Amino acid sequence: MLIELGVVEQRHAAVLEVMEGLPVTEVAGRYGVTRQTVHRWLRWYAQGGIAALTDGSHRPATCPHRMAPEVEARIVALRTEHPGWGPRTLLHYLAREELSPLPGRSSVHRCLLRHRLIEPQKRRRKREDYRRWERLRSMELWQMDVMGGVRLTGGGELKVVTGIDDHSRFCVCAHLTPRATARPVCEAFLAAMRRHGVPEQVLTDNGKVFTARFGRGKGLVLFDRLCHENGVRHLLTAPRSPTTTGKVERFHKTVRAELLTGRVFASIEEAQAVLDAWIEHYNSERPHQGIGMASPAERFTAGSPQPACSLTDEPPPAPRTHTRRVSREGRIDFAGHRYQVGAHFAGQTVELVCSGDLLEFSHRGVLVCSHARRDHARVAAPAPAHPPRPETDGRPVLRKVASGGEVSFAGTGYRVGNAHRGEQVEVRLVADRVEISQHGVLLRSHAARHDRFKEHGAFSTPAGRPLRSNASRFSKEECVTQVLEPMRNTGGET
Predict the structure, then answer these.
(1) What is the CA radius of gyration of the chain?
(2) In this predicted model, what pLDDT tens digit does every residue of 76-130 receive, in sequence order?
(3) Hey, what CATH topology would domain 141-299 get?
(4) How far is the CA of 433 from the CAs of 65, 121, 394, 408, 453, in angstroms?
(5) Coil, strand, or helix at residue 221?
(6) What pTM, to 2 d.p., does this model score?
(7) Overall CATH class of domain 7-53
(8) Domain residue ranges in the chain
(9) Which side of the chain, N or C, has fewer Cβ within a 10 Å radius?
């Protein structure tokens, strides 16, 4: 009859056999263990008897890198007070409180798991797999959108016109409106430009309040007109691509989670006051994980506030019509580029209408073809490598803004804005930047793109190119005194 012995009983039997005089090697071979294991059983038996032969815990007696109890208690308290804070945010506030030793992010995560303050998640993509894009400096690009979800006690809902600076995540616009129509959206955009300055570009989706890209009309909407008058380039996302404006969409998620969840406001004034207070906290105090746990105000550098063009009900100016003759190959030249019209129109005259970035060609009142305007997308040749330009005294050079909203300096055009067309501005070269100002107010600042060897020509004519004088512009008396008299005195040898 077979009897099954437990682990402790087998170990006790092996110890007794060795104590009776059997060799350790023979006992170890009979029980299928090593000699060292048998010697370990002997030590255990000598120290605690048969009770010491049971399996014990493998936990070490000490752990030098174990989280301090007071730090763990503070993590639990912060997480309980702010359920939306994750390990990185909790670690940021622990560093502010100067708790030591400071644990790692994974240690904070395991602490939250131990106390069941978060649920275990499935393995997600690595952080290195995500590709993030952002502009190199502030005021270069704004992302704008419209968000809903602000509830009123009467059952109504308000819309929020939001704007985020792409580089710093600074909230430049957060305006509540009952209906997100074209005029309230443009008024919010205009107020943001008056407060923080005019950006170089603005990125929006294809909503009807922003563009007529998918609308029935062919003209410019009010938002496009406002961008055009202030010299702002309007960028649009691809259809059904919300990730392109991901920064402002992520801002909407933060607003809903930290401000709007479970809240109902009595009026639009109350909601706007609460929203403004939260935006001030978001910009100045709240750490942002996307910019290294710094506040958006630390990275944001506002442009020089300038009077932006106001909204008007006047329609945009009618597009200018140009006339061109078609060549033998069926092409025409316009603004330094060639466009194909058709060989069957060779020798004929066509009318060209420039509507924004689209060129429309008509023959005898019939639209024959359309082309995208290519002079806007012209890529400048790379400038030759030169040694770094030293600091200058910033001597002013007077220039007149052309009809395209640009000024010429050292053979290179620099953007000023259509609002200053025909006006006189001052151009200064400070270090590696070209600064354009008017009446002591800085309008624009650009990185120098011109050839440094052409600067002497720009500084030699600080008031602009001098007027030419030729004989065709002389009066009769000037011709006699300046041309005929010298010839008579020299006998016609001049």
Answers:
(1) 38
(2) 999 999 888 889 899 999 988 888 888 988 999 999 998 888 888 766 666 666 6
(3) Nucleotidyltransferase; domain 5 (3.30.420)
(4) 52, 50, 10, 14, 16
(5) coil
(6) 0.52
(7) mainly alpha
(8) 7-53, 69-120, 141-299, 321-372, 392-494
(9) N
